[in-house]
Amino acid sequence: MTQHILVINAGSSSIKYQLIDVATGVRQTSGLAERIGEGLGRVKHESDGREFEWQTEIADHTEAFAQMARGFADAGTPLDTLDLAAVGHRVVQGGSEFLTATLIDDHVAERILALSDLAPLHNPANYSAIVAARAAFADVPHVAVFDTSFHQTLPEAAYSYAIAPEVAAQYGVRRYGFHGISHQVVSQRAAELLGRPLTELKQIVLHLGNGASACAVDGGRSVDTSMGLTPLEGLVMGTRSGDIDPGALLHLMRAGLSVEALDRLLNKQSGLLGLGGSNDMRDIRAGVAAGDPAARLAFDIYVRRLKHYIGAYLALLGGVDTIVFTAGVGENHAPMREAVCSGLEWLGIEIDPVRNESPDRGARVVSSDASRVAILVVPTDEEAEIARQAAEVTAR
Ligand code: AMP
To answer: What is the mean pLDDT of the chain?
Structure first.
């Protein structure tokens, strides 16, 4: 019988799930329960090309799993007929204690909750989903796969901020980095595409989705990354500012902005949305085409910030074999890739305009044959990676 891993990606008001075949890594079912605890919710279940969708009140994560079970039953594949090898949970913050994917017991679940201080938006939701899923699938091993683990290889000089060490230690202030599951699977697939051992490659991976981060990967290990204590630092994102002078925050607080107002400003109202009126790069692109100066500025700041990080990581890595674009913007927005790489030809980084504009969707090379650095587009697949890691942990 085919063994499956159920992958759970829970937010505070939604649960996304996928059923993945352990042997082949193929996704057989995917679904979403959203607006949990927000009145009338929506459930969408997709299996073998068939879609099931309905609306109902979803009071909490436990009810969301009951609705998910209904989706599987409606599709003719009730959960108890599937041979579940494990449930893999995406967990955003693993702090300094979870270095790899980890089998969940009561203690591990409590530690994930305890790390909520460092990820107040994410870890409580991850915890609630873990509790509900362990109750729903009591006989199956549950595995936590962390967004931070891949960055546990950062050297001390990369993860430390230049503040007094006692203060940093007291409050747990250090760079953790995020999107680790994506950076890991994308850097692995980039090596496969190039037909070279991962251990020999210096890579700059640019995960450009609604959230965005850059990662310097040396021989398969993360050695620097742009997100920090929280997923707010670094690149310009859909609604997040990325880097900003911390003195500006003090200035705004002294001017009377509350902590909550600052949090909203920086996390929800900044980035492409704050600058250009939409968090979606497609709208920014349409604005640029229509001659909107705000959209143009948003695009330019986005590209400029990326160049800052590419320059920094080239220096830190001592050269690079490949620059890899992934996630919504990175995979789909050719003009942005072109703008980021333009002017870097003197470094041996040369994009091929025809390859870059090609409508291909798979992992592909978009640099010219003359380019010393391979420029790649590699679709991310965080769920497949969560399934892979969950299978690895349970096989031990
Ligand atoms: P993700 O978080 O990886 O799902 O990325 C979502 C983001 O990708 C959206 O908010 C858009 O900014 C961007 N995106 C998706 N499709 C396209 C596209 N065809 N062209 C440009 N940007 C896109």
So the answer is: 95
